[in-house]
Each structure stands twice: as structure tokens, then as C-alpha cells.
Task: inverse folding
């Protein structure tokens, strides 16, 4: 029997209709396993030896030609750092100059690596690069929102094979981001607690969608998952922004993230996916009602007219079954 | 130079970054032109002669075996009409029974037709079927929102070739729908006018994104288009719901819709697309601040991590150039 499920934090609803769909194993696609990708490609701008094909690095660890992680300005940036944030009127419509910061995080020197197959310490260096760049970018007075994300595979919007993620920082905080913040404030004012803290505690209490849990982090398929095998990772302690992750938590998050991605990689045969780290806007870092998190979205279903029109996603895989399937994967 | 553009009605922003992209003609994909599809398929449940493969029609025009348009309950419905709207608690999470109505509108008896290639009178019969079904469904006390949509092609979420669209009616009006309503109320209370009426008037005044205009309707690539070749059709007169379209307007809308789709069909070589008719929720049909419209989204770009995370869409095609390209298409 189908049911609607509500995301406790955003109040958005999904339709869970698993009887239309398949067992978790039916979602496995015949994608090219990562193993067939070569470790190095002559013409890849992110491979060692081709550093001259990118802009000068903003961050590298370690510095020099033996870098493990490297952050460079995006050569094909949708926004430019040398513009203003001025608004303009076009008739009664509004525009703003295309100011923003766009960077690429090259996650590993080897072309055929991916977070799911890296060492935990290597994943930690990627997560550390995210934090360091987010700290630096947040010092820019004109920036209000930093979005960290990864597009893996063509269905997730990238054709670049080399393991990389991106950071785009904007002066704009759009309604799409503000609305859930408003819901979180209302919840805080009513119940005196961060709604995300409550949601995470409830997921742990119910326990049937957990993929992996550590002292400070928990990964699960959320109760109101919008698409098959959606996974989320939350810090258990209240923190509004990823900037506040501590040194000793980075290795722990790396372990949780790597295990979650490895279960997807092996269980679903290296699915195309997006992930996003969502933090509070700059200036709201200490707020008591927001909570950073990471959402991983395997691209194994297509949002269609109903989803675009209503915002109600039809999910054909039960998150309980998805989590069960993922925890059974041998890694 | 990239720029942010704001959707006047919803206040959402897009990034227009055409220099990253291509000229309009570069968006043309090598999709299979519709002409190679056979006019009839033995195993197609929507082809004449196979009526027994669907449920009994709820609507047919004309009645009988020579139908031109046929509406049937969706055999693979995500929601069921025989359930309640009761809410349930699962711990501190909320669910609702999966009540809803899901119907399929079979747009034409011939398998290889599509709205872009039909006669205007045939398109009008599809639009009439939408209205008649929306009127009937809206009489159901448990229904609050009716979404009419079309998924055309695999990238738009369908594998069924036979020309069809869908109607899904839900008891839930989600935040995704409520938020723009709130913006519209605020605008109405401040300026005393429907923000959509104003937006349409401004699009007509600026004039450089218009695709086709008739006495009562206008089709354009909107100022803040989220993706390449997004098109919208609005009634010029204030009407909150599609239900209120009048008999003599249906043929006129059919002409505008058919021309817009034909320009996309020929100009972009039959692109996969979604379209959606958005109406005010039931009970708000007479409201002065909402306005029904149709949005057509060719699926020639992929929303990725940044779009999902921030809600800010990066559009690599200028809507001015897209509209110019479409108006130049010979149909």
C-alpha cells in the first residue's frame, strides 16, 4: 500500500510506492565498474603532470608535485570572482551581477580512484580540503552561501572521470535554502530544539534505516527519502555548518562517508551520484536551529513531470529495504 | 558575463551563464525523430484494439471504439483511490495513507503521433479532456491538488512511446506548492495585483522572449528560465486554475501549445521533455493572487549537485537567444 511520508525538518512529503518498483537488487545497473578506468590519462587536466592545464592551486596537500588533494579555480566557472553583487532592474525584473566563487577539488592524483575505494586517510584529506576552503571563502564579505557538492557520472551531470568535487559560493541565499530555515526556526520556537537534532535522534531510536553509525556521525536512508537509496550523513552533535567540524572528527566522518559510498559502489555497481554538503549561510554559523548534513543521491531514477510540478517525489524503493540491502553488502 | 536573474513570482534565482555553453543549434541532440516510430504497435496498451489492456475509460471522446482521446485509471498508480487521508505517527515522524487519483490521458489513437504533429483540433481535444477530468476530480472532497503533466521520452521519465499525459491528484498540498503561493499573497497585499499578471505583462512589454502570442495566451522563454529552452504558456487574463478555461479558449490554447511544441520538435529534433499545468489548489479557484500556467521543460541539461543543493539553476542558454531560435524555426 502506498503512503505519504513527511520530512520532519522541511515538511515536504514524498510518496513511498515500493510495490510499483523492484527489490533493491533490481536497481543495479550495468554501469562500467571503476576498475576498467585507467589510473592515468594523458589528456586529463586533473592527472599529475598536467597541472599546467588548470589554474594555479588555491590549496594543495601536501604542497608541491606530490600533492594528494588539490583545489583549483574552476576554469569553466558559471560565476566570476571579479564582479560585484550589484542588483539591476530590467523593467520590473531583477538581476544581479554574476559574482561568485567556483572551485574544483581534485580528490586524488589517480584517475581511476573514487572516494569509495580510497584509503580512509585519503578521504579525510578531501574532507579537510572542503573545510579549509569553506573557512577561507566564508571570510569574503560578499559571499553568503557555500555549497560543496560532487557530481559523479554522466547521469549526475559530469563527463569528467577524474575524481573531483566542487565548491560554489554565492552572494545569493535563495528561497529554496531559506524556506527550510524558516521551518526550522518555527520548530525551534515551538519546541526549543533543533529539528534536525530531533530527526537524527529519532532515526537512531527507530534504527531500521541506519547504514553506519560512529560516535559523532550517523548515516541512514532517511524516513522520507525522495529517491531510491538516498543516504544522509549527519553529525549527532548540533552544529549549523560544516566549518565547525573538528580535526579529530574529520577522520571519523571520512570513515562513515567512505563506508556509505563503498556500500553503494559495491551494492549498486558504481552508480552515478550527486552528494551535497549543506551548511547554514554565512552569519548563521552559531544558530541553534540549523544543522549541517550531507546528502548522497544515487542517480537511479528520473524526477519527471509530477515531481517537478508538485515537489512530491515518488520513491519506488522503501528506505528500510534500501538500508537493509546496503548493510548486507560485503565490503 | 554571467548574471543572476530572479523569477519575479517565486523569488527564486537562476544563474545565466551562456558563455559556458553553446549556440542554440548546439543543443540539438541526435534523437530518433518521431517519424521512425510505427503508427501502431501490437503490444502497446494504448493502441486501438488493445483497449482491454487498460482499465475501463473514465472519459472518451468520442465514446466507443473510434475514440480520439481516452482517459483511463493508471494501472501502475503510485496512489490509490480506495484509501483514506488519515495521518499516522511513526515515532515523531508523520505519514498519511497513500490516497490519491492517478489517470492516464491517451492523447491520440496513433502510436507515432505527438502534440507537435497533431491537428490543432486534436490538441484541443486533449486540452478539453484535461479540463473535464480536472473538474470531475476537483469534486472529490479529499483531493486538494491536481497536477497535469506529460513525460515525453526516457530522459523525461517515461519509456512508453504512445502519446500520453498524466493526471495525479493528491490530498496533500506540499510546501513546494505553498511557498510560491505565499510569495504571491505578499505581492498581492503589497501591490494589489496578481504577480503573475504583472510578470506576463512585463514579458509582453519587453517582447524579446516571446515565442507566440494570441488574443488570450502568450508563450515565451521566461526571463529567469531555469534550463535551456524552458517555455511557458500563460493565459493573459487572470485565472487561478485551468478549470476556468472557456470553451472558445481551448482551441486558441491548442494552437499556441501546438506551435510552441512544434518549434521545439523541429528546432531541437524531438527533444525529451516534461510539461506541467499548474493550477491553484482546490478551494482557491477564485483567488486573486494565483494564476495557472503551463511550463514546458526540454530535457537537454542535467540538474546536478549545485542545483539540487542550492536550488539555483545554472542555465547555459540565454532565453532571449532560445526564443529567437525558436521563432526562426520553419514549421
Result:
Amino acid at each position: 500500500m502506498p503512503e505519504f511520508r513527511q520530512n520532519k525538518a522541511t515538511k515536504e512529503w514524498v510518496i513511498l510506492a515500493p510495490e510499483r518498483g523492484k527489490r533493491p537488487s533490481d536497481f543495479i545497473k550495468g554501469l562500467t565498474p571503476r576498475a576498467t578506468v585507467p589510473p592515468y590519462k594523458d589528456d586529463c587536466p586533473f592527472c599529475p603532470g598536467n597541472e599546467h592545464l588548470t589554474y594555479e592551486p588555491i590549496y594543495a596537500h601536501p604542497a608541491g608535485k606530490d600533492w594528494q588533494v588539490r583545489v583549483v579555480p574552476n576554469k569553466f566557472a558559471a560565476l566570476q570572482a571579479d564582479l560585484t553583487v550589484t542588483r539591476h532592474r530590467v523593467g520590473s525584473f531583477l538581476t544581479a551581477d554574476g559574482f561568485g566563487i567556483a572551485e574544483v577539488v581534485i580528490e586524488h592524483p589517480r584517475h581511476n580512484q573514487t572516494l569509495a575505494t580510497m584509503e580512509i586517510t585519503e578521504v579525510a584529506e578531501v574532507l579537510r580540503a572542503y573545510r579549509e576552503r569553506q573557512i577561507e571563502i566564508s571570510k569574503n564579505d560578499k559571499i553568503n552561501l557555500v555549497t560543496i557538492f560532487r557530481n559523479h557520472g554522466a547521469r549526475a551531470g559530469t563527463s569528467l572521470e577524474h575524481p573531483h568535487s566542487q565548491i560554489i559560493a554565492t552572494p545569493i541565499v535563495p528561497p529554496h535554502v531559506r524556506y527550510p530555515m524558516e521551518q526550522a526556526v518555527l520548530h525551534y520556537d515551538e519546541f526549543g530544539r533543533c529539528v534536525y537534532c530531533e530527526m537524527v535522534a529519532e532515526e537512531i531510536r527507530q534504527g531500521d534505516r541506519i547504514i553506519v553509525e560512529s560516535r559523532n556521525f550517523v548515516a541512514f536512508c532517511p524516513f522520507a527519502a525522495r529517491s531510491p537509496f538516498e543516504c544522509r550523513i549527519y553529525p549527532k552533535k548540533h552544529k549549523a555548518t560544516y566549518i565547525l567540524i573538528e580535526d579529530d572528527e574529520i577522520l571519523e566522518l571520512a570513515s562513515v562517508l567512505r563506508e556509505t559510498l563503498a556500500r553503494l559502489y559495491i551494492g549498486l555497481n558504481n552508480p552515478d551520484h550527486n552528494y551535497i554538503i549543506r551548511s547554514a549561510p554565512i552569519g548563521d554559523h552559531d544558530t541553534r536551529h540549523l544543522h549541517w548534513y550531507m546528502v548522497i543521491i544515487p542517480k537511479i531514477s528520473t524526477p519527471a513531470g509530477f515531481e517537478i510540478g508538485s515537489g512530491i517525489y515518488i520513491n519506488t524503493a522503501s528506505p528500510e529495504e534500501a538500508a537493509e540491502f546496503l548493510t548486507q553488502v560485503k565490503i
The two ends of chain A are 33 Å apart (CA to CA). Chain A has a mean pLDDT of 95.
